[in-house]
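Repro:
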Amino acid sequence: MTPDDRLKRLRFRAWHRGTKEADLLIGGFFDLAHAGWTAAEVDWFEALLNEEDVEIMGWAIGTIAVPDRWRGPMMERMQVLDYIPVSR
C-alpha cells in the first residue's frame, strides 16, 4: 500500500466511526494534522483507530485518564480540540 493510499484509508476510518461526535473529533483531528505526520505518527494514529470511540473521546476531552501507551505529543495535540467545528 502506498503512503497516499494508507492516508486515504485512515481518513475514511477516522470519519466513519459510527457517531457524529466521534466522526467530528477523530476525523477533524486527522484532517487538521495528518499532512505533517511522520511515519511513526501515522502508525500511532492507525493503532489509535483500533480503540473504542468512547475511550478516544474521553482521553481527548479529559474525562478519562490517558493510558501511558497513548500519552505524548499526538494525544496532547488531539486534546486541544480546536479542529472541531462549532455549529450555531
